[in-house]
Design goal:
The chain is an alpha+beta fold. The chain folds into two domains: 6-67 and 81-144, no CATH class; 196-392, no CATH class. The chain has helices spanning 12-23, 30-61, 77-87, 90-94, 96-106, 111-115, 117-125, 130-147, 216-224, 238-252, 308-317, 323-334, 358-361, 387-394; strands at 159-160, 167-173, 176-180, 196-202, 206-210, 255-258, 264-268, 271-277, 291-295, 302-307, 339-342, 346-352, 373-380. A hairpin with a 6-residue loop joins strand 1 (159-160) and strand 2 (167-173). The longest helix is centred in the N-terminal third of the chain and has 32 residues, at 30-61. It is elongated.
């Protein structure tokens, strides 16, 4: 049995301050309600979170808590914080205050109120003094936290994956953590392509590059189809952002990549690069001819590439009586918000990362990005030989060559 106890980190005096606040009815006045909540948040910061951090660090050092498993390919704030706390990762150290807040809110924060309900009732009925009720509630809180067997309704039940968009429930038994889906099934790893590849064909090569073509008929058309609030892709997750890009390409022949930062539009040998300037400057390779064509103001946190004639056609489809005029009005008013580019008509290859990590993963043997820039995505005249893809293919064995006769079922 563990000798590490929550009582060593949350004192009876600190708990008494919380319990006395708990006995105070929540005010009905809005301003008073705000002050009531602020007092509770202040207690969390001064006592709840530090006690949780000290307790779990002691459990970690004793090897009495586990990591989340089965989460490969997923991305959760809570999992990043929890596993980082166990591993002592650099990310955890950098974001320690927020990480401990996430861990506290997901685990211990609801425990005092639930375990103190009977004690508060006894005080209200006059069957127990405040001092005795405080002591009784404190012992219950310490007991349940020490056990690490918190009921599921006290734990986070809406843990969002920023890769798949799915939601999970936390489980905790003896401080062994887990995640289950809404049907109670344990989470499983997912495989995610860090770089996604699509084809797009331009009939004229007369491109408009902007965050969004601000033409009402075009926006109305997209809102009824791809961007419908109820049925459209979830842009909070990588899978949803990839789905959005795919649908715009397949249904409208429009390039739309989610992401902010107002990237620059660069023309390089072999295609266009949307990129941000690097934090340091290096000498550009002698054979690389980089042309800076402009910058996209991504107020809408996206970059859209569309042929002018295609925009006219879609504006007409969206109900405009004079689509040519509407598009010209937009282009005349946009000024620095858009970049106009002429490219050769034909088929191009789009490469992007729906997880906003393009520069971490992109490497191609037949396309080089100017090292003075951090690429956000690439529109290439040719299909690229991505080194990650080539390395994966090189590692795959042909089952007809060797080794398959001794495989166990």
């Amino acid at each position: 049995m563990s000798i590490i106890s929550f009582r060593d980190h949350l004192t009876p005096e600190a708990f008494r301050a919380w319990f006395e606040h708990y006995l105070t009815p929540r005010p009905e006045d809005a301003a008073a309600q705000h002050a009531w909540r602020e007092a509770l948040c202040a207690w969390d910061k001064e006592f709840g979170i530090p006690a949780t951090a000290a307790f779990l660090q002691a459990k970690r050092d004793a090897g009495e808590i586990s990591r989340f498993t089965g989460v490969e390919g997923h991305r959760f704030n809570l999992v990043t914080a929890w596993n980082g706390m166990i591993d002592g990762s650099a990310h955890f150290v950098k974001h320690e205050v927020g990480a401990w807040r996430d861990i506290y809110q997901a685990t211990i924060r609801r425990v005092p109120a639930y375990m103190s309900f009977d004690a508060r009732k006894a005080v209200e009925q006059g069957t127990m003094s405040v001092a005795d009720a405080t002591a009784a509630a404190y012992e219950k809180v310490v007991s349940v936290v020490d056990s690490g067997g918190l009921p599921s309704f006290l734990l986070s039940s809406d843990i969002y994956c920023f890769v798949t968009g799915e939601r999970y429930q936390m489980t905790l038994e003896g401080w062994k953590v887990g995640l289950v889906d809404l049907e109670g099934k344990p989470i499983q790893p997912v495989t995610v392509d860090p770089i996604i590849e699509h084809q797009v064909t331009f009939a004229t090569g007369d491109l408009i590059i902007a965050d969004w073509p601000r033409v009402k008929a075009f926006t109305d058309l997209c809102s009824k189809t791809i961007d419908d609030i109820a049925t459209g892709p979830d842009l909070n997750c990588a899978r949803g952002r990839a789905e959005m890009t795919r649908r715009y390409l397949e249904e409208m022949n429009v390039v739309s990549v989610h992401g902010g930062g107002s990237p620059r539009v660069l023309r390089q040998p072999g295609g266009l690069v949307l990129a941000h300037r690097a934090d340091f400057e290096v000498e550009t390779p002698a054979l690389m001819d980089t042309q800076h064509l402009g910058r996209v103001d991504t107020q809408y946190r996206a970059v859209t590439i569309i042929e002018r004639q295609r925009l006219v056609d879609l504006v007409r489809e969206g109900g405009s009586q004079d689509p040519e005029r509407d598009v010209e009005i937009y282009l005349a008013s946009a000024r620095d918000d858009i970049v106009r580019v002429k490219v050769n008509p034909g088929t191009y290859w789009l490469y992007f990362s729906p997880d906003h990590a393009f520069e971490d993963h992109f490497a191609a043997r037949n396309f080089q990005v100017d090292p003075n820039f951090r690429p956000a995505f690439v529109l290439s005249e040719n299909r690229l030989e991505l080194t990650a893809r080539l390395e994966a293919e090189a590692g795959e064995e042909d089952p007809d060559e060797e080794g398959d006769e001794d495989l166990e079922p």
